[in-house]
Amino acid sequence: MKSIENNIPIYINIGKELKNRIVTGKIKPNEKMPSVRNLALEYNINPNTALKTLDLLEQEGYIHTDSTNGKFVTSDEQFINRMRIEILNEHVTYFINELASLGYSLSEVLDILKEKVKVK
């Protein structure tokens, strides 16, 4: 796991990481998700927390349960693309708000972004 946001429950942090892995294709559509036990072992968390994480992903539409085979990533690629854009929008909004709170103007931010994009 990359990082934990301190004031956010663990199951939400892990859920965010799994959502990011789904929308970036690191976890593919229709791919089987780890069991509650395996997820708990992977993240060194209580199985109840792992179950809560998977339940959250299911409630939000990222995964579904096949009653006999476990939990799987949605096959709805339009949903995945919408969520990918939504996550991007959240990150950009946070980025802009943070820079605005530090006193940077939009033109300053755009100038630096243009410069950085040229470098890569």
Q: Describe it for me?
A:
- This protein has about 120 residues and is mainly alpha-helical.
- It folds into two domains: about 10-75, Arc Repressor Mutant, subunit A (Orthogonal Bundle); about 80-120.
- Helix content is about 60%, strand content about 5%.
- The protein is built from five helices and two strands; from the N terminus they run αααββαα.
- A two-stranded antiparallel sheet has the order 1-2.
- A hairpin with a 3-residue loop joins strand 1 and strand 2.
- Helix 1 (about 10-25) packs across helix 3 (about 45-60) and helix 2 (about 35-45) packs across helix 3 (about 45-60).
- It is elongated.
Quick structural gist:
With 120 residues, the protein is mainly α.
SSE run: HHHEEHH
In one word, what is the shape?
elongated
- Class based on secondary structure composition and strand pairing: mainly alpha
Q: CATH homologous superfamily of the largest domain, by name?
A: Winged helix-like DNA-binding domain superfamily/Winged helix DNA-binding domain
Helical run tally:
5
Low-confidence stretches: none
Radius of gyration: 18 Å
Report the CATH C-level class of the largest domain: Mainly Alpha
Strand fraction band?
5-15%
CATH architecture of the largest domain: Orthogonal Bundle
The name CATH uses for the topology of the largest domain is Arc Repressor Mutant, subunit A
The order of strands across the largest sheet is: 1-2
Helix share, percent: 55-70%
Oligomeric form: single chain
Q: Distance between the terminal alpha carbons, to the nearest Å?
A: 27 Å
Number of domains: 2
